[in-house]
Each structure stands twice: as C-alpha cells, then as structure tokens.
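Subject: mismatched residue count in predicted assembly?

I count 1120 residues in my input, but I want to confirm that the predicted structure covers every chain. Input:
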Amino acid sequence: MFIPAIEGQGTEEQKQKWLPMAHNMQIIGCYAQTELGHGSNVQGLETTATFDPQTDEFVIHSPTLTSSKWWPGGLGKVSTHAVVYARLRTDGQDYGVHGFIVQLRGLDDHSPLPGITVGDIGMKFGSGAYNSMDNGLLRFDHVRIPRNQMLMRLSQVTREGKYVQSDVPRQLVYGTMVYVRQIIVSEASCALSRAVCIATRYSAVRRQFGSENGGPETQVINYKTQQSRLFPLLASAYAFRFVGEWMKWLYIDVSKRLQANDFSTLPEVHACAAGLKSITTSATADAIEECRKLCGGHGYLSCSGLPELFAVYIPNCTYEGDNIVMLLQVARFLMKTISRLVSGKMPVGTAAYLGRVEHLMQCHCEVQRAEDWLKHSIILEAFEARSARMSVACAESLSRFSTPEEGFGEISADLVEAAVAHCQLIIVSKFIEKLQQDIPGKGVKTQLENLCNVYALSLLHKHLGHFVSTGCITPKQGALANEQLRSLYSQVRPNAIALVDAFNHTDHYLGSVLGCYDGNVYQKLYEEAWKSPLNDTVVPDGYDEYIRPLLKQHFRTARL
Amino acid sequence: MFIPAIEGQGTEEQKQKWLPMAHNMQIIGCYAQTELGHGSNVQGLETTATFDPQTDEFVIHSPTLTSSKWWPGGLGKVSTHAVVYARLRTDGQDYGVHGFIVQLRGLDDHSPLPGITVGDIGMKFGSGAYNSMDNGLLRFDHVRIPRNQMLMRLSQVTREGKYVQSDVPRQLVYGTMVYVRQIIVSEASCALSRAVCIATRYSAVRRQFGSENGGPETQVINYKTQQSRLFPLLASAYAFRFVGEWMKWLYIDVSKRLQANDFSTLPEVHACAAGLKSITTSATADAIEECRKLCGGHGYLSCSGLPELFAVYIPNCTYEGDNIVMLLQVARFLMKTISRLVSGKMPVGTAAYLGRVEHLMQCHCEVQRAEDWLKHSIILEAFEARSARMSVACAESLSRFSTPEEGFGEISADLVEAAVAHCQLIIVSKFIEKLQQDIPGKGVKTQLENLCNVYALSLLHKHLGHFVSTGCITPKQGALANEQLRSLYSQVRPNAIALVDAFNHTDHYLGSVLGCYDGNVYQKLYEEAWKSPLNDTVVPDGYDEYIRPLLKQHFRTARL
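Triage response: the counts match. Full output below for your records.
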C-alpha cells in the first residue's frame, strides 16, 4: 500500500522520485494509517504533522499513547520508509488527515532514526498465519521531514504554510478502494473454494454408520445433514467467484467514468464494493470453520490445512473496512436512495430495482409447486421484494425519530439486516446473469444452474423470517423452497467431487491431508503423524526428569 | 477416562487391583476408543480382542490402518496403560465392542512393549491449546493380555471362552454420560463468560466515531449494532450457567433412579443431555469468535486471549458426541415421543409440554404491545408451540415415506432444526424457573429478568422464520419482539460491566490484555508488544543476510 498511496496521492514529481526507489527495493516502504486507538474512523487519527515555516519542514509527532501507529505489515522490523497518515496543522488550523513520506531507519545500518520508536506488536491468531511477518508499532517524537514529503496531489501546503486544495476531484481515490475490495471478494472465493474442496473430498472418503450386512459404512457426503451444510458453501464459492469477476468489470467501468469526470455511479459502486466485501468475507470466514467441523475430529489437526486457512483468512473481516461499518455504509446509501425516490431520482446499477419499489411492495410470489422455485424470475423477484421491503420498513422507522441520526443509531441492527438483504440480492442476480451467458463445456451449465438455485434457496431458508414476515412469500412457499432444496442437493451430490476438482487446486496449494486429490487420506494421515517432533524419540524427552520419578514414587519434597 | 471406565465397567476385583495403582500414579492410564476411521459410530470400531482358550488370553490386534487408535489424550508419549475398546471375539462369534486393560509401555524404561506401536498424531489448531499435550496413535500386532483384563462387570468371558451377560442393567452406563455432558455444559458457560467478559470490558474502553465538538468518541458498547451482537451472548453465558446447574440436579436425580432400577426417565434425560451438550457448545464456539470480532483488529492479537480460548474450546463441538449426531438423537427421541402420544403415553420432564400438543398446535400468541413480550408465560408458550409444531411437522413428513428410516435420512436437516427448537425451549424454561426462585442481592433479579428476556427474544429474532411460518406468532408480533429487544438492550447497557464483573474472573485467569479489570488497555497492549521476541534486537536478525543486500542492490545470482 506504500506504492499505491504515492501513485494515488503523490504529485508527478513525487512519483518520479519515490516510486523507482520503491520498485528497485532501494527502500522498503509500508502504509502506516491505523493507530492503537483508531481504526475504522480514519478522521479520528491523532498523529500530527505540524508545518514549521521557519525551516520549511513538517514536524511529525505522536502526542498520545493511542496515537501510536499499530498493525501496519512489515513496519516493525523491515521497512525503511512509511507513508504516514497524520493530521495536517498549519497556519494555526487543523486540516485533517493527510499522507506524508517519512524515513524510519538509516539505509546504512537499519537503525531507527532519531525520534523514531519502532517495533513489533507481538503474536497473533494461529501458529503460522500472520506470525510469519511483523506487524509494527511506530511512535514519533518531533521528527522533522522536508515539506515536499507531504503527498500533494489533492492538496498542498505552500512555502508560506498556506493550505491549498487542488482541483483534482477527491472522488478519484474511491477508484483504488473499489479495486482493493474487488480483490478481496475474489480472494474470498479462492479461500472458500479451498476449504470446500477439502471438506467435500474428505466427506466422500469418510464413512460412518449405516453399514448394512457387514458392508462398508455410508460416505458422510451422502447424509442430508452433511449436504445441507456443505453444498450451500460449495455454491457460495462459485457465487463469490462470479460476483468477483463482475466487480472487475465494475472497477474498469467506474475508472473510465472517473477519468471522464462522471461521478454519477460512484455512490452506488462504493456501496456495492463495501457491501460485497463485507458479506463475502464474513460468509467465507464462517464457512472455513464450518468446513473444519464438517471434517469431524480430524479437521482439528493442522495437517487438515483448515486451522491455518482460518487463521490467515479471518483478518479480512476487519481490515480494509470493518464488516459491520461497511454494512452501515450500504444502509446509508439505501436510505438515501429511497428518500430520493419521491423526487423522481431513479437509482442505477445494483440499486435499480428500488425504482420499481411500488411493484415490489405489493407483488405476490407465484410459487405453487416446489419446481416453481427453479425459475430465475421468481427467485429474483423474491429477493428484490424482500430487500426493498426491509429497506422501506427501515426508512419508515427512521421517519418516526426526531432526527435521522438518532433513528439511524437506534435501528442500526435492522439497517444492517437490510444491507445484507441488498447485498445477497446482488450476488444472486450476478449468478443469474452469469447463467444467461454462453457457458462452454457439455452439461456445465446445468450444474451451475443447480448451484445457483442452491445458493439462492439456502439463503432463503436461512433468512426465512425476513421473507415470510415481509409477506414476500407464504409459509407454504417457504416449505416448498426447502423441499426443492433437498431435491437440488440430490442433484449436486453426483457431481460434488467434480465441482471441487474444477477449482483446480493442486495438493501442494491445498496443503491438506484430508483434501488430497487421490483420496488416500488415512495412509497420508498416518505418515504425517510420524513427522511430529514428539515422535523423534520413542521414550519422550523429560521421561527421566518427570515421568519416571512419578511412576517410581520418588516424589521430591515440594518446594513451594 | 481410564479410571471412570474401570469404575463403570470393571468388576469389584478389577477395581481393587487397578484403581489404587492409577490413583497412586504407579501407572498412567488413558481411554483408547476412537480410531483413525471410527469416531461417532462406536459399534464400527475395528480393533479386535480374540480369546485364545489355550492360553486363557485375549489377543489384541489392529487388523487395518483405519483401526489404529487415534486422538486419545496422553496416549502417545505418557501413558503406560490404556483401556482399549475392541471387538470381542470368542467361540467363533463377534460380540461387539468391549473394554480391555492393556499395558503399553514397560514400567522400568517406558519402552513400548512388543507388538505395540505408539506415537503422537501431530500438531493441532492454534499455537498453544491442545499442542501442549500429546494426542496419541496406537497399533497392536497380536498383543496378548490375560483374560482377567477384560472389564467384566456387564459381561464376562469364561475360562472356556463362553460369553455370558451379567444381570447388571446396561442402562447404568448412561449415568456417566449424563455426568460428563453436564460438565461440558457448565464449562460452556465458563468459556463463554470469559469471552463475553473480555469483549464487554473492551467495548467500554474502545471508542470510535461519534465525537461531538472535539470531545471523546463514542464507546463502542453504546452502539446498537455492538449491543445486538454482544448482549445476547452475555445473556447466553448466564442461561448456560443456570441450565448447567439444573443438569447437576438432573444427574443426581437420574442416578438415584438408576440405583433403584427405575429407568423411566432415562430416554428423556439422555436426549436432554445430548441436546444441551450440542447447542451450548456450538453456540459457545461461535460466540467466542464473535467476541473476537467485536474487539476489532486487536482481538486478533494473541494477548487478547481470544484466539487461544477459541482454539482450546472448539473440540467441544466434536468430542463426547459430534454435535449434529447429538441433535439427531434428540430428534429420534422427539419423533418417538410424538408417535407414542396416540397410545396415551404421556411424556415426562423436559418433554412434558408435548403432552399438551393439541393445545400448542392451535394456540395464538396474545402479544399486542412490545411490553407483552416481557411476560414469561407468553415467551414460554411461543417457544413450546414452535418446538411442538416443528416436531409434529417432521412427524407428518416422516409418515409420507415408505420406511421411517428412509424418511429420517431424507428430512434429517429439518429434524436437526426441530431438535434445536426443543433444546432452546429447555434453556429458556430453566432460565425462567431460576427466576421463580429466591434471588439474593438487591436488584439482581431485575437484571436477570432482563437477560432472560434478551436470551429468549434474541433467539426468537434469530429464528423468526420458524416462529412465523409455523403460525406461532404473527409478523407484527415478531416486529414487536424486536422493538422490545432494543429497549432491553438499553436496560442492560448500564449494568453490562457489573454483569461481567460478576463472573469474578481474575485478570490472571482471563489472560487478556483487552479484558483487564482496570480498563488500562492501551498501556498494557503497548507494554505487551515489547515482550515480542522480535523486539529483542532493534535491528532484526537476518538484516545483514537478507535485508541489507537487497537494499544495497547486492543481488546474488539466483540459485534456482
């Protein structure tokens, strides 16, 4: 993030000076924004950058303990430079948070420069995961940097200390945000597909109960309880992949518009990226742990690959925007969109359905038989109606409070649910759009149809309360969806292994004994066990010191 | 489990011989049941114990790779003996799984005895957790033990090799199972209370957004989104504690009955213990991770205490009965109970409400205003009606299949949901029963009332689909419950810290910088960071070897 920060917020001159050095590894840079006491609220950062007109320098300082920079990756032990976000003070005023390039360590001996305190923040979740890198802390004691190390593309401080805003539109920075979040969504699909691949393959190997006449027991993947937990996750891995691909298009589209000074789609795109980042990462984190449980006891072994996958993945729910904060941003967008409908402003893109809100508030689901739930149009309308009705209900609740802000705080849990409904609709609709394209490979489309329906109907079953209590579907129709879901599981079952093989993960990449391609799980588990360092000796270290005295009743006098 | 196994299944003679040795640590024993290929299905174990009448011995053998004993704690490196579960073969017949005392290692040098292969199964989830003990693997190559090392309280093999069953009722072994599961439920409350204590205290320290006129930001515990995630978990910690206490009584009661050869309550007690084990441990595992997320980024630090708590806790969902298998056992009990209603057999204990099934199928919830949801009778009837209706719907579905077994497999996911509904009812009802007792301490009862209502109404909100689609409540009543829940959160808020302080966890026991009693979180985080081994040197190890050559552009020729 050191380089993108300079690319996005640096002047041409700054880019020409700093980027080649960073690219050639003559310096190692990191992005130092988060502080010990400040994460989601970037405007609350405390580090100060005070302009000193006498020397033409900024004085970077950490005025409080909570202003210590905290978490940046590689900051603690490796980086020589950082883009530091600090409150710009000049001319007797606070101009809010800006970026500054600050050198942290000497290029000859790597010692921290005067006024710089830098170190590692300590151990983190898991045995490997982010423990294989340092996350740093950083404090400044009146560290001076030249004025030209403030990133000055969007605003400048003159030699005299005057603050000047450039005419570069601020909205341009949102482009990078969409780009980063699109990558996170794609990575969610990737992480989820790994977990699902492991759990699916192992579920076909593992047998338990159901032996008839002394024959082999039943493969656990054949149990409906296993299918009802596993197959929605398999469908989600595909769903997130397709919505990730679509987000790539979205990023390109919005970038083009931004370059042409067209900011019309930006609020919708921003809400979309924030919401999808949130629900795909939350769902993926939960799904990895569910896949571990689906592997029974052996999922708890490190060699299952799932503990490490989980420990590495879960920070996604917090970084680049805490998932609940993201959903509240989506909710704000939805409330604004609805409030503007009365003035005839038609919503665009993924919010376009809200333009049909009158219809969606009164439409009736036409499902009469379980198979009716296979129709895309029916699924789509149910999801649109549910999302629209939940948003409208929130908007009505808000109007009963004396100020919108008070209402927004009070019903924020409901707003989060409305935002989730909206984002799930986006994913369902992008899956359906994908199916309207040409899909190469014989029979592939049928399988994807099944997964799309599994994805949508399992969400409908999970959030049945929303669908039924908003009147979008009747209890009877909910039961029919559940019945159809069971039948879909039976259709997915014969292709489940092929559908995870299609992710094309190598055994090396999966890093899981349980998920190995050839299914020779038990042999590999047994071989892996013998690699445990505890097995280096047959009689364990410490036997003479601890175990033997115990067994021989040679207790020492207690020394406590 | 070595000692309880001998106590439960050993003869008087065996108890007198082996228990003193185990108690005095002259031998170290473990309980070796689970195999590489067999966990939940104990009857599928493959290890064999074949009686040889010529030598009056059993031959213990591992005929396949999957028959290797796998997971027993302390088996790999420490234990000298094990109670090994193996298929008893004598007289040309297989009599199923029985327990045998087998010596594994010599008492003089701790070497594995001839025919014994024993070792550790390798690393597990987390950095500490269960990695601080060995979990073992064990294989037998025709290992001979004397006949009198078969645990013979319930059945015997005579000198001639004849299999004889004693008249000791088999049901007695269920007593121990209830005992163990009661402990697991109590421990769920304990683990959950630790996580909730950490997250609640830190939520009062952490501030983010909402600063007015330059004042401090808002404590995150004041956000409704935080409350709606945190307070139901706080309420659950109390709920699980009370249901755990009640289970202690249940264990004593059933033990007395078993001793008097009264087996009438056993099926109900067994279903109850299985179900409560399942839903309290699943809820607690999820809750610990949710508490971690509620602590934002800092929850990911090891010093938050939450990663370790999670890694240590999650095996509870799998061991002593996989949680889904447990719920299917509850569902079987519910289906049996309902099928017997027609013959006038009235259910007892926690299933007694099913005796009022006719009323529960047609009753209407009387809630008209949000405050009506505070009435215990209304909450209880809603939970009873929902559980009864879900069970009856499953029973009706089952009757449409050609065999009950086929139906049970096909709708097992629905059966699991019905079992969850039944178990949640038990917890809600025991919380309400607790409140009908005398509660010492001024104002304590009011706080517990609030938590009880939070627990029940948050479940109702989470499972709204079940309540509404079974017609137990109307959508309007669901919305009123949600409204009441918001108001309850406001009432819990001022006492939230006191309610977690009441768990009386010391800072040492909590092991969490974020959850420290004095709230001096940031200072402690900062001090803790400097203890990281990476901070032992200012310039990191490896600088000269890796970082300096990079920065100085002294690239070596690639050796790949």
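The first helix of chain B runs from residue 2 to 9. Marking this ticket as 'not a bug'.
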